[in-house]
Design goal:
about 140 residues, alpha+beta, globular, 3 helices
Length: about 140
């Protein structure tokens, strides 16, 4: 006979991400540039700023992809390392620093980190072969 799990046991095992010292996340799509994350317009004499549709779509897909990898939660201050595929589906040059913000936001939304203000160190670099992935992200607890 199998024992029933309590609600707390179920949450600990399945629902709530477990604390881990590090996590590796693979993303299939390149994030939009930080330059295009928001759009602004004037409404009734006030400047209104909202997330762009492209950013909202990318973040929703990225959060789903991150959660499906069940990487756990890195608690407290952390180091963030981003490696991105050079010339991902475009020969247009991009600035590496413009992919940091959308990736950080997706990590928070997916529950991998509590807040992106806890990042103690952030590195980002281009590489020429990520075996089909757009981005590889490593998050590690600062000791």
């Amino acid at each position: 006979m199998t024992e029933r799990m309590s609600a707390k046991q179920y949450r600990e095992q399945f629902a709530e991400p477990k604390a881990v010292p590090s996590a590796r996340i693979l993303l299939a799509e390149m994030p939009p540039s930080a330059n295009g994350l928001r759009k602004s317009f004037i409404k009734e004499g006030k400047v209104i700023s909202v997330k762009s549709a492209g950013y909202a779509d990318w973040r929703k897909a990225a959060v789903f992809e991150i959660k499906s990898q069940t990487v756990g939660k890195v608690e407290g201050p952390y180091r963030l390392s981003i490696v991105a595929q050079r010339h991902w589906r475009s020969k247009r040059a991009r600035d590496i620093d413009n992919i940091i913000k959308p990736i950080s936001d997706a990590l928070v939304k997916a529950g991998v980190v509590h807040d992106d203000s806890l990042a103690e160190c952030v590195t980002a670099r281009w590489v020429d072969d990520l075996q089909g992935h757009a981005v590889v992200v490593d998050v590690e607890v600062c000791r």
